[in-house]
User: What shape does this take?
Amino acid sequence: MRRGPALAGLFFLLGCTLAFAQGDAKRGEYLSKAGGCVGCHTDTRKDAEPYAGGRALKTPFGSFYGPNITPHPQAGIGRWTYNDFVRAMREGRRPDGENYFPAFPYPSFTRISDADLRDLWAYLRSLKPSARSSRPHELGILYRWRVSLYPWKWLFFDSGPFRPEPGKSAAVNRGAYLVQALGHCGECHTPRNLLGAPKKDRYLAGAKLGESTNAANLTPTKLKKYGDGELKDILTSGLYPDGDVMGETMGEVVRNTTSQLAPQDLDALIAYLRSLRPLPDEPK
Amino acid sequence: MRKSGVTVVVALSLGAVAGAALAQAKPEQLVRQRQAVMILQGKYFGPLAGMAQGKAPYNADIVRRNAAFLDNLSRMPWDAFDPATKDVKSNALPAVFEQQDKFKEAASRLENELHKLYEVSRSGDENAVKTQIGAVGKACGACHENFRQKQ
Assistant: This one.
């Protein structure tokens, strides 16, 4: 009779170890929201299958289409090993060794921790496989060769997980991790040079996206006009305090990501943005 | 008989005055008018978005009232995006005047979504109302994305 609880405890411990080794899909789902994966990896049609690929990301170099990342063996990434996934996220390389274009934001995702990669992988494995084939990118003639990515990566890409800054509070470091690694906010909110690499000294100072769209300056220069409560409202509702609706690109990020964050993560994100050095807007 | 004749004359002259007033409206005035409409849309849409997202308790009376206000407001700003206002300083991007077809399309999308909201707000179906509030938000955001420069 007394063996029951002991056995249950043993199984519980065993379960925990297994879950740790295999990653926690539930946690992975949350991390996937924090990473906004669904945005690029889902078509814009109303009935589109999530994570089955299709969205066009228009850049000066051409249109990139987010591929199918469901576990379908042919159409998706069903044949990948966990190591293939880690190599893609951390080193920006495909299973066959070729480089990804940095439209896939691996310069940010490389900062994701080992534990989070495991959970993300567990979540991706749990998705319903979709047979929808990935659409090839449509790139300008000069940019089609992946070979050119070797020097690009050599110049601009540092791999490796996020390291907390010792002098900063736990909240600021957590926020930095959410913004720099999972959230990949800098991919849009940092201006890029002619080779499409972010200008490090202008990190999160806002950037022009295409002809008319701008990503806002996220340093205190712009954000100081909002209180913490107001910023939280903006990032959970997609509305400014006067009821003004933000542009749809960020509106979608609010729906998919920032409104889904746990309250303490949203607080951390704001604490980190507040800790940034104020930078002036990009010259128009 | 004479009375109706007078009415016609009065109506005609009022029409002429209104027409003249429209023709004379200064570009700066048009910009202020359309901004006023946008401000009021924000005022009446904000609480609805809060209810749709579960941040504020759902109140069917406020939804019905605001949906009716918004249905009307959504038809008001467009004639103030007159080409004459092109050079007046505002958050409107040049695309408003350069891609008029797309701008009109975005404008009618908002009108349609708000009219739908007006209709479902009368049906009393809370879930349908909340879904439709989301659709309205997307219509606002889609137009802001391409035609408005947030300062």
About this structure: The radius of gyration of chain B is 19 Å. Chain B touches chain A at residues 38-39, 41-47, 49-50, 53, 55, 93, 95, 137-138, 140-142, 144-150 (CB under 8 Å).
